Amino acid sequence: MSGFTMQLNEDQQTLQKWVHEFAENVVRPVASEWDEREETPWPVIQEAAKAGLYSLDFFANVWGDETGISLPLVMEELFWGDAGIGLSLVGTTLGVAGILANGTMDQIGEWVPRCFGDENDVKLAALAVSEPNAGSDVSGLRTRAVYDEKTDEWVLNGVKTWITNGGIADVHVVVASVEPELKARGQASFVVGPEHKVADGVGLRMGQKFQKHGIRASHTSEVILDECRIPGSQLLGGKDKLDERLARARERAAAVARGEQPAASKSKGGQAAMATFEASRPSVGAQAVGIARAAYEYALEYAKTREQFGRPIIQNQAIAFMLADMRMKVDAARLLTWRAAWMGKNGIPFTAGEGSMSKLFAGETAVEVTEKAIQVLGGNGYTREYPVERWHRDAKIYTIFEGTSEIQRLIISRAISGVQIP
Ligand SMILES: Cc1cc2nc3c(=O)[nH]c(=O)nc-3n(C[C@H](O)[C@H](O)[C@H](O)COP(=O)(O)OP(=O)(O)OC[C@H]3O[C@@H](n4cnc5c(N)ncnc54)[C@H](O)[C@@H]3O)c2cc1C
């Protein structure tokens, strides 16, 4: 019988060390600067591409690890360096995941390399799902995709919002509604290339760029689709598959209208957007673990050296116990992300919402631990002279994007109870 181990193998240890060194030597020193500039840190992305850390090959290797643990390892180390820059480096993988989850082999081969570009000409990708009126409830997407049979083109119209790398990406994966009355089952994913990007007029363009509370080095903006015509071949999965899926969804809707129990869904998870989010939750959780660990380590060192009442503040149980709790939660969050990543990679279904658990717990841990780190640092923690206030601002997004904490609780409670909690 093969033994159980929590020990990382040699490849994983090497990877972890390499990414950590990049985070420590390249990312951390410029983290505060890019946070203040609120701009995409192109020089860091270029340096990562030159080092081999921003490329299709790199992510393909990491995804290829059959234990599933390499991806959370990379995320934790990068985001330990800085979350805003980290997201600028891995935001592309959201678009890539959208292509991998829904595309044919030909589409994957054509589009995924274009998401990264090469070390001399780096590119970004984006995944555009959310809309002003459809955040947690993506069944209500209003962006429409209409097929023009005469030209074999899809025409996209709508407004997407809060899109990471929105408008600055070369490749946008856009989820749109083909048959709104079928709600989420009537949606499909489309890939929009740079040739359809415009500064003004018809096509895809960037709308408002948002100024944010945290992860400010990561670009977030609206994406406007105005009569954006793309070739029929850019419907991910292809038209035949979509037509079959829509036919099934219509039958299902008709059965429900007749008051019958619909047949179980044959699709992986049904909805295009959900399939993408489900797979990425443990690695998003690992990003939050990285932020939390950074804050915990910083607070621990500070508590050992800062003296009040003639002794280091760590000699007060109030501070020492706070640090003990911080460490325990960081470790627990990491274990949940590793478990979910391992399950996901090995095709073990998340019967208790384990993917959601990992993202939920890690996100809330990051908020709690970074807040405690400010407390440990006292007045210094509250100023921009020290990094913990930035980490606290960065951490908060982890209870909001990729499914809010409330939505994760909904998924977990439905999974464990079998009850369709509204
Ligand atoms: C910085 C940033 C980057 C992002 N990047 C992307 C991206 O790249 N691509 C993309 O498509 N989207 C992206 N998003 C959007 C993000 O996924 C949404 O903001 C998120 O899903 C929440 O949607 P919402 O903001 O509309 O909140 P709402 O859905 O309006 O929720 C508001 C509040 O109501 C609660 N709530 C809603 N429904 C329920 C319910 N049924 N039960 C209990 N509570 C409920 C929520 O938990 C939340 O607390 C990004 C957002 C931000 C801020």
Characterise the protein shown here.
- This protein is of the alpha+beta class.
- β10 (307-308) and β11 (311-312) form a beta hairpin.
- It is globular.
- The longest helix has 34 residues, at 272-305.
- The protein contains 13 helices and eleven strands.
- The strands form four sheets. Strands 4-5-9-8 form a four-stranded antiparallel β-sheet, with no helix packed on it. A three-stranded mixed β-sheet has the order 3-6-7.
- The protein binds flavin-adenine dinucleotide.
- Flavin-adenine dinucleotide is lined by residues 94, 127-130, 135-136, 162-164, 212, 215, 220, 397, 400-402, 404, 406-407, 410.
Give short descriptive properties of this protein.
422 residues; alpha+beta; binds flavin-adenine dinucleotide
What can be said about the biggest beta sheet?
A: 4 strands, antiparallel
Can you give the mean pLDDT? 95
> How much is the radius of gyration in Å?
22 Å
The dominant shape is: globular
**Secondary-structure element sequence?**
HHHHHHHEEEEEEEEEHHEEHHHH
List the ligand species. flavin-adenine dinucleotide
Fraction of residues in helices? 40-55%
Q: pLDDT under 50 segments (min length 5)?
A: none
Protein topology:
Elements: H1 10-37, H2 42-51, H3 56-64, H4 70-81, H5 83-90, H6 92-102, H7 105-116, E1 117-118, E2 121-122, E3 125-128, E4 144-148, E5 153-164, E6 171-177, E7 187-192, E8 203-209, E9 220-231, H8 239-257, H9 272-305, E10 307-308, E11 311-312, H10 317-345, H11 354-377, H12 388-395, H13 405-417
Parallel strand pairs: 3-6
Antiparallel strand pairs: 1-2, 4-5, 5-9, 6-7, 8-9, 10-11
The structure holds flavin-adenine dinucleotide (FAD).
